[in-house]
């Protein structure tokens, strides 16, 4: 179910896109994606309203479909929410969980994110669990503590070892949508810490979840970020809304050592 590629390039459209803009963007991405080596996997996460349309457009291509959230319960009286089995029914493969915008705007807790991840795994979806420190936590020297706590609270037992796999996206909150990408050195040391914290939490060094970096990634810095040994891909927001930028980032993955 999950990609085995060496670089996972995930585009999170957030709350953007209409049927017309999606048709244009996906058409351009599919044109460019054909030239990418199989070691680069593309995932597009449109808003719920476009999942069906985008899913139909990418059918039969190398591009996979992702959603931006799900509810932990499989069905019921939860107005406005979408359950994991509903996503699986639409052909969705990945689901972003615990994005900092949802933690901030919907007060999502690590326990809720963990329950959502378990629900997603139960129907074969690959969760992309987001973690990241705020600027205040970073300035106080608490970034690693915060990341370890998020891993302990939000990552289910056995995460990554399931046939659906598992992905962790490290997104420093201060780097999201700010144009301020974390430095290569910061990403290197922080993802090394995340890997250690995952191994300690999961009690194994084998089949650990893939680790992505997210936060103002552009085609300019993608190759450098993707050449870091503990980084398996990137989670891209703003730059995923332009085919040139998104494909430029994917090209950076194609050029980085696998
Ligand atoms: O999900 C994507 C991240 O929040 C990064 O967004 P950004 O690339 O616009 O900074």
TrEMBL record:
Active site feature: 99 (electrophile), 171 (proton acceptor)
Example of a GO biological process term: glycolytic process
Transmembrane segments: none
Pathway as given in its UniProt record: Carbohydrate metabolism; erythritol degradation; Carbohydrate biosynthesis; gluconeogenesis; Carbohydrate degradation; glycolysis; D-glyceraldehyde 3-phosphate from glycerone phosphate: step 1/1
Binding residues for substrate: 12-14, 177, 216, 237-238
Localisation per UniProt entry: Cytoplasm
GO cellular component: cytosol
One Pfam match: TIM
Main location: cytoplasm
InterPro entries, A to Z: Aldolase_TIM, TIM_sf, TrioseP_Isoase_bac/euk, Triosephosphate_isomerase, Triosephosphate_isomerase_AS
Catalyzed reaction equations: D-glyceraldehyde 3-phosphate = dihydroxyacetone phosphate; L-erythrulose 1-phosphate = D-erythrulose 4-phosphate
Entry keyword set: Cytoplasm, Gluconeogenesis, Glycolysis, Isomerase
Top-rank taxon: Bacteria
EC number(s) from the headed UniProt entry: 5.3.1.1
GO MF terms held by the record: triose-phosphate isomerase activity
Complex and partners: Homodimer.
Role according to the record: Involved in the gluconeogenesis. Catalyzes stereospecifically the conversion of dihydroxyacetone phosphate (DHAP) to D-glyceraldehyde-3-phosphate (G3P).
HAMAP family: TIM_B
Family label: Belongs to the triosephosphate isomerase family.
PANTHER family cross-referenced by the UniProt entry: TRIOSEPHOSPHATE ISOMERASE
Protein name per its UniProtKB record: Triosephosphate isomerase
Phylogenetic classification of the source organism: Bacteria, Pseudomonadati, Pseudomonadota, Alphaproteobacteria, Acetobacterales
């Amino acid at each position: 179910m999950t990609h085995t590629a060496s670089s996972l390039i995930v585009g999170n459209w957030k709350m953007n896109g209409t049927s017309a803009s999606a048709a244009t963007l996906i058409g351009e991405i599919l044109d460019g994606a054909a030239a990418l080596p199989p070691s680069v996997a593309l995932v597009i996460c449109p808003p719920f309203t476009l999942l069906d349309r985008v899913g139909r457009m990418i059918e039969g291509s190398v591009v996979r479909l992702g959603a931006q959230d799900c509810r932990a319960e499989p069905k019921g009286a939860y107005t406005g929410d979408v359950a994991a089995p509903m996503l699986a029914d639409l052909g969705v493969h990945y689901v972003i969980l615990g994005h900092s915008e949802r933690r901030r705007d919907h007060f999502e807790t690590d326990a809720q994110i963990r329950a959502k991840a378990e629900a997603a795994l139960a129907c074969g979806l690959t969760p992309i669990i987001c973690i990241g420190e705020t600027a205040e936590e970073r300035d106080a020297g608490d970034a690693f503590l915060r990341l370890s706590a998020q891993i302990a609270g939000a990552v289910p037992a056995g995460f990554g070892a399931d046939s659906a796999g598992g992905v962790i996206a490290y997104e420093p909150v201060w780097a999201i949508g700010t144009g301020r990408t974390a430095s290569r050195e910061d990403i290197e040391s922080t993802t090394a810490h995340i890997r250690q914290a995952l191994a300690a939490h999961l009690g194994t060094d084998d089949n650990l979840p893939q680790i992505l970096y997210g936060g103002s990634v552009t085609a300019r810095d993608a190759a450098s970020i993707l050449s870091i040994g503990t980084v398996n891909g990137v989670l891209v927001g703003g730059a995923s809304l332009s085919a040139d930028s998104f494909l430029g980032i994917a090209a950076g993955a194609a050029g980085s050592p696998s």
